[in-house]
Write a structure and sequence with these properties.
- 40% of the residues lie in helices and 11% in strands.
- It contains 13 helices and ten strands.
- It has a single domain, classed as Aldolase class I (TIM Barrel).
- The structure holds flavin mononucleotide.
- Flavin mononucleotide (FMN) binds next to α1, β6 and α12.
Length: 346
């Protein structure tokens, strides 16, 4: 058994390895989101003024500027990981968008890692989301760890990420996913903020949503395939060919969105995985995503500065607003499940 500090060092090293892999292998980005196959109904007479396009919405009872979410990435006992989180948090506040952090498991073992998740000081007004791996509920984590994760971030919600494919490829992966729905249900009754169930790039199936709903969960981040491939990232770390074989496994974000539509009345869906510009975003919103999570495109800007993250988010916003204007939709709420905005197959 590693000592606590060894275990924490391992987790921090893993977070660094993930970033290095992403910077070194361009094919971790799969470019297979299939958003481009959906065609939008351009309007030549949009009957609206771009200055009055209303993109604002609410998330976790807080106003946000447009339906964008800085998706979970990192945190851990290393200076660059802390810097990334600070840049992301400052940009979240500047742009008035929510932000989620990467897994907080490292901070349970090392107080140095905890600092990198103390982000409320940089983002006082926007929704912040804490994050733990759901599978850790089968490996000793419970309500205490969840409360510590939430308190450190002063979070508005807790992500429990579901990553069975990633754990299988990881040499040190935790692969017992038995009985988790029950434990998620118990946990949800003992904490004060909503739990959001999230995949990490292979998508949630309708059966997962049903299990989640039965466990009292109302928020889901579909995190489909098409963008960052975690299987491929872990294949590099583990030198495990299985990770390359499974690099395109899973439901695309579009497939997951389509399959989530029967549950739209009972749940709040976040679309993420392969969302690369404001046009992808608007398609995901029309398909039922109330928010769009973006991870990989923010990594390089976050390694650099807060301003670069702000520029990247503002570009998404400009693209989203332009697309909304060209569809002739003044209010963001009128995008939701509005299938008439797609060109039907001829
Ligand atoms: C560098 C990096 C680190 C990530 N770390 C986590 C994590 O710790 N926990 C988590 O739930 N998701 C994590 N993710 C997954 C993302 O939140 C997201 O679900 C996935 O990357 C798909 O989005 P994308 O295609 O926009 O990158 C990470 C993504 C990146 C790029």
């Amino acid at each position: 058994m590693p000592t606590p500090s060894r275990a924490s060092q391992q987790i921090t090293q893993r977070k660094q390895d993930h970033i290095d892999a992403m910077l070194q292998d361009a094919q971790i980005e799969r470019n297979q989101s299939e958003f481009s196959a959906l065609r939008l109904m351009h309007r030549g007479l949009p009957e609206c003024d771009i200055k009055q396009i209303h993109t604002a919405t609410q998330f976790l009872n807080k106003p946000i500027a447009f339906p964008f979410l800085i998706a979970s990435m990192t945190g851990g006992a290393a200076q660059n990981l802390g810097q990334i989180n600070r840049h992301l948090a400052e940009a979240a506040e500047a742009c008035q968008v929510p932000m989620a952090v990467g897994s907080q498991r490292a901070m349970m073992l090392d107080s140095a890692a905890k600092q990198t998740f103390a982000l409320r000081q940089y983002a006082p007004t926007v929704p912040l989301i804490a994050n733990l791996g759901a599978v850790q509920l089968n490996y000793g984590f419970g309500v205490d760890e969840a409360k510590r994760a939430i308190e450190t971030l002063e979070a508005d919600a807790l992500y429990l990420h579901l990553n069975p494919l990633q754990e299988i490829i990881q040499p040190e992966g935790d692969t017992n996913f038995l009985g988790l729905a029950d434990k998620i249900h118990q946990l949800s009754q003992q904490i004060d903020v909503p739990i959001i169930l999230k995949e990490v790039g292979a998508g949630l199936a309708p059966q997962d949503i049903e299990l989640g709903l039965q466990a009292g969960i109302q928020h889901f981040d579909l995190a489909g395939r098409g963008g960052t491939s975690w299987s491929r990232i872990e294949a590099h770390r583990a030198d495990n060919p299985l990770g390359f074989t499974f690099q395109d496994w899973g439901l695309t974000t579009l497939e997951a969105l389509k399959l989530s539509q029967p549950y739209q009345k009972n749940a709040f869906f976040i679309a993420s995985g392969g969302i690369r510009n404001g046009i992808d975003m608007i398609k995901a919103v029309i398909m039922g995503g109330r928010l769009c999570g973006v991870a990989a495109p923010l990594l390089k800007p976050a390694l650099s500065s807060t301003e670069q993250v702000v520029d990247c988010i503002e570009q998404f916003k400009q693209e989203f607003t332009t697309a909304q204007f060209l569809l002739g939709i003044q209010n963001m709420d009128d995008l939701h499940l509005n299938n008439a905005l797609f060109i039907p197959n001829m």
